[in-house]
Specification:
- By secondary structure, the chain is α+β, with helices and mostly antiparallel strands.
- The chain has two domains: about 10-105, Zinc finger, CHC2-typedomain (DNA Primase, Chain A, Alpha-Beta Complex); about 120-185, no CATH class.
- It is built from five helices and 13 strands.
- It has helices at about 10-15, 20-25, 75-85, 90-100, 105-115, and strands at about 35, 40, 55-60, 65, 70-75, 120-130, 130-135, 140, 145-155, 160-165, 170, 175, 180-185.
- The strands form four sheets. A five-stranded antiparallel sheet has the order 1-2-3-4-5, with helices on one face. A four-stranded antiparallel sheet has the order 10-9-6-13, with no helix packed on it. Strands 7-8 form a two-stranded antiparallel sheet.
- Strand 7 and strand 8 form a beta hairpin.
């Protein structure tokens, strides 16, 4: 079954990771070719030729050409398209599946497509809720809010969080006093709530 035309394919990633020689090996064709200088020659696998010199492969630049009945050539994608009798898009899909080629760009695009909006929904803050007493110096230090990233709301109500920095916990009386807070992205005027006062001991 062929993949739909809308199925995303990263041609650059496929060409970077998969060579023509790898494709020939998958078809078991390397054994049918003999080296002639920097080229490989053999019978054409496309039209099932018998002339052992009509199908020429240049491994260095990743191209092939049939000088027999086919009278045409190309690169890795075109060879798979000819052998599988599919178009180049479907050939790329099959190559990606055979050699487990994934694309970070496509993965990001697919993840973002699940979000309800292109614009971020929330700002992400790490918050120390209260003033705290430094156990070494006895100094009372103020609580704080620090912007550490952005969050996108997904269609299912979950969130994708993109952090620009890692949260740093604040310890007070042996307990973590830092929490993560999401605030509406459009809420530019609202000031963060003031920190609570520490109990004086």
């Amino acid at each position: 079954m062929s993949a739909p035309k809308s199925y995303p394919v990263d041609y650059t990633q496929i060409r970077r990771l998969v060579s023509l020689t790898m494709v020939l090996s998958r078809y078991g064709l390397i054994e049918t070719l003999t080296r002639s200088g920097q080229q490989l020659r053999g019978p054409c696998p496309i039209h099932s030729g018998t002339n052992k010199r009509q199908f020429v492969v240049n491994p260095r630049d990743g191209t092939w050409h049939c000088f027999g009945n086919c009278s045409r050539g190309g690169a890795m994608l075109e060879l798979v398209a000819e052998l599988e009798k599919v178009d180049v898009h479907e050939a790329a899909v099959r190559i990606a599946q055979w050699f487990a080629v994934s694309s970070p760009h496509l993965a990001t695009t697919e993840r973002r497509s699940k979000m309800s909006a292109v614009s971020p929904s929330f700002k992400v803050f790490t918050v120390s809720d209260r003033e705290w007493k430094d156990p070494k110096t006895g100094e009372i230090k103020k609580g704080w809010w620090t912007r550490i990233g952005t969050a996108f709301e997904n269609k299912d109500g979950s969130h994708n969080v993109q952090l620009d920095a890692l949260p740093v916990p604040t310890i007070y009386d042996g307990a973590v006093q830092t929490r993560i807070v999401l605030r509406p992205y459009e809420d530019e005027e609202q000031d963060p709530e003031p920190p609570k006062k520490a109990a004086r001991k």
